[in-house]
């Protein structure tokens, strides 16, 4: 097998694993919270994004359980410093702007243990129980 074919095989396996993790998280998450892209078969799971009305409470709950989270997209692309002065952002983007305050990145990578995945899922189910 060529190096390119071997790398493609690994990438395909990693994508399957990330989709599995995201599906597990989505199953533990109840409305109004959701896992972004969980039902999209083209999602390769580069990031597992929780969307919750109270992101701060979600992040605090994860932190108390020893789970690291992040906010990968704190600023809209069109509002980045490098985009200042460029034509483009001329209208309000209420859906995108609201999402900025609701998204939280969860652990999602090949190599997470079943115990780690389940720990995240347990916290997600508690967050859903509170309606955050």
Keywords summarizing the entry:
4 helices, Aspartate Aminotransferase, domain 1, 3-stranded antiparallel β-sheet, 8% strand, 45% helix, 132 residues, mainly alpha
Strand and helix map with partners:
Elements: H1 3-28, E1 34-35, E2 48-51, H2 55-64, H3 94-100, E3 103-106, H4 114-130
Antiparallel strand pairs: 1-2, 2-3
Helix pairs in contact: 1-4, 2-4
Walk me through this protein's architecture:
The protein is 45% helix and 8% strand. It is mainly α. The protein has a single domain (3-130), classed as Aspartate Aminotransferase, domain 1, CATH 3.90.1150. The chain has a three-stranded antiparallel beta sheet with strand order 1-2-3. Helix 1 packs parallel to helix 4 (114-130).
Please state how the strands of the largest beta sheet are arranged side by side. 1-2-3
Report the C-alpha radius of gyration, rounded. 17 Å
| Cα end-to-end separation | 49 Å
Number of domains: 1
Q: So how many helices?
A: 4
The CATH superfamily bears the name Aspartate Aminotransferase, domain 1
What's the level 1 CATH class? Alpha Beta
The biggest beta sheet is recorded as: 3 strands, antiparallel
Instruction: State the secondary-structure class.
Output: mainly alpha
Which outline best applies?
globular
Instruction: Enter the CATH topology name.
Output: Aspartate Aminotransferase, domain 1
Mean pLDDT: 89
Strand proportion, as a percent range, falls in: 5-15%
Helix and strand sequence: HEEHHEH
- Number of DSSP E strands: 3
CATH architecture name: Alpha-Beta Complex
Percent in helix: 40-55%
Task: Please mark out the parts with pLDDT under 50 across 5 or more consecutive residues, or reply none.
Answer: none
